[in-house]
Write a structure and sequence with these properties.
alpha+beta; Helicase, Ruva Protein, domain 3; five-stranded mixed sheet; about 250 residues; elongated; N-terminal domain of MutM-like DNA repair proteins; 6 helices; 2 domains
């Protein structure tokens, strides 16, 4: 599932290739990924226009259109991605933005989320009203994490904190040596957790994804008998907040 580092990578693809260039055409190959906008409406609104500078909020990618109030909003769900390419489209390319010299392609196998067109700033604000602060930009965690919630459940709740999924939440808690089932209120000082989260996110953003390195929990979690990269203890698997969860019982007691 794309998490904050992946979406930041997609933002850079769009910013590096498509911003400021005239949209020659919009080809909707599968309208099932469109949300609250028709294929004809999307094409009419975007053709001849230019993308402004995109920004990210957690797992959302927000791209304003120059010369008007509209914003193209992308959410990548479980399997979405964004690519700058030429040549024959991939079979899972659902929407293609055509430019002179290349195409920006929204690709998604499972089509669980997709593309929206916010008519103005008020519509965009309504769409994002239930989204928490961006995990890379958030201030003190004690101001946003509910004390009664378990740590893992709070971190992956997009209405609490935007951008973290299973891989990042487990990685951050493992690095911070915090058990995923601990209550937020049981942690006296959330400052070190925020520091760990920001460091982990910066490293993952640099890699363009959550990297499956052997030194990361991410690199060991899917092995049949995966062991902790830090102490060698066999990892445990369970569910927290309805999500599959991996932790080290030695490094993350409780």
């Amino acid at each position: 599932m794309p998490e904050l580092p992946d979406v930041e990578g997609f933002r850079r693809v769009l910013a590096g290739h498509a911003v400021g260039r005239r949209i020659e055409d919009v080809v909707v190959r599968d309208a099932q990924v469109l949300r609250d906008v028709s294929a004809a409406g999307l094409r009419k609104t975007l053709t001849g226009r230019k993308f402004g500078e995109p920004r990210r909020l957690g797992k959302w990618l927000l791209t304003p259109l120059k010369g008007g109030p509209e914003t193209v909003v992308l959410h990548f769900g479980m399997t979405g991605s964004l690519h700058w390419e030429t040549g024959e489209p991939h079979r899972h390319d659902r929407v293609i933005f055509c430019f002179a010299g290349g195409e920006l392609r929204y690709r998604d196998m499972r089509k669980l989320q997709g593309l929206r067109l916010a008519a103005d700033d008020e519509a965009l604000e309504r769409l994002l009203a239930g989204t928490g602060p961006d995990a890379l930009e958030v201030g003190p965690l004690q101001d946003v994490l509910p004390g009664r919630r378990q740590l893992k459940a709070a971190l992956v709740d997009q209405s609490v904190l935007a951008g973290l999924g299973n891989l990042l939440a487990d990685e951050i808690l493992w690095r911070a040596k915090l058990n995923p089932y601990r209550k937020v209120s049981s942690v006296d000082d959330l400052g070190p957790l925020r520091t760990t989260m920001r460091k982990t996110l910066r490293e993952a953003v640099k890699a363009g994804r959550v990297p499956p390195r052997p030194s990361w929990l991410t690199g060991r979690r899917d092995e049949p008998s995966g062991s902790c990269p830090r102490c060698g203890t066999t990892l445990r698997h369970g569910r927290a907040g309805g999500r599959s969860t991996v932790w080290c019982p030695h490094c993350q007691p409780g």
